[in-house]
Amino acid sequence: MIDLFSVSDECEVFGREVVLFDGLDFRLPPGRYALLSHSPEYRPLVMDIIGGLRPPRQGWVEIEGSVSWPIGRAAMLRSKATGIEFVYLVADLYGIERDYAGEFVSSLISRPEYLDVSLYVWPPWVRQEFNFALGLVPEFDIYLVDSQIPSDDSRFTRLWQALFEQRLVGKTLILSAARPKQMLDYCAKALVFDDGQLEIETDLEQCLERFPIRSAREAVGDITNAGVESGADFLF
Could you tell me if 174 and 142 are in contact, meaning their C-beta atoms sit under 8 angstroms apart? Predict the structure, then answer.
């Protein structure tokens, strides 16, 4: 369960201050939700607030249970640490045995030899596998996923999807992805952010028609073409 009480928040988007919420009261019951919006650049900002990852300017958020970081978000792995150092950090933060965490990630990713090398020099696809594998090391009550879920025909994807489905049993998911099919496969309802409000919609297919998924790059292009200077660094 997630409750927002009188939440107000402002943030900088494309170089200008925008009001994200203005005195919002909202309750999100347990479930699997696709996070949708006409403005994709707002989705990570909304996810951070409702997931308790960033406190709002005013008001507060109460979360019942443990919540993940935004799994899949590329900015989560901007580090010169080695992969195994990152694994140990997560293990220490969540009270998990280091050996178990290291063996779990090593057995899941396609190139475990990279764990002893700085993340800074990893190929993007290895970093992506590691990002998603790391998100399954702790078990959470609420999973935030801010990326396209692995979907290629590979050993890693098959293993990860099977483990993720196990983790999701009886848990909450908030998914912000770039593929409508993944929204339909993993989610039962839509969590819609529109004009500073949050709403739960039960007809996910209809919502995907009303709020077609666009990438942040497309949004940047729309705003730039409209003559608004762009320069924000979004965490996708």
Answer: yes
For the purposes of burial, counting CB atoms within 10 Å of the CB of 106, is it exposed (0-12), middle (13-18) or buried (19 or more)? middle
Specify which residues 21 forms β-bridges with: 9
pLDDT at 91 > cutoff 50: yes
Residues recorded for the chain: 236
CA–CA gap between residue 16 and residue 8 (Å, rounded): 17
pTM score of the predicted model: 0.85
Distance CA(197)–CA(42), nearest Å, equals 12
Asked if residue 235 is part of any domain, the answer here is no
- Predicted confidence (pLDDT) per residue in 123-138, tens digit: 989 999 999 999 999 9
**What's the average model confidence in pLDDT over 167-195?**
92
**199 DSSP 8-state letter:** E
> Taking the CA atoms of the chain, what radius of gyration do you get in angstroms?
18
Residue 115 has pLDDT above 80, yes or no: yes
Which of 9-23, 37-51, 63-77, 130-144 has the weakest average pLDDT?
9-23
Q: Are strands 189-194 and 32-37 parallel, antiparallel or unpaired?
A: parallel
- For residue 8, the enclosing domain spans 2-225
Closest CA to 117 of 87, 160, 90: 87
Check which CATH number belongs to the domain holding 86 and give it.
3.40.50.300
Which DSSP category does 85 fall into? H
Please provide the distance, in angstroms rounded to a whole number, between the alpha carbons at the two ends of the chain: 25
| Cα separation, 40 vs 72, whole angstroms | 16
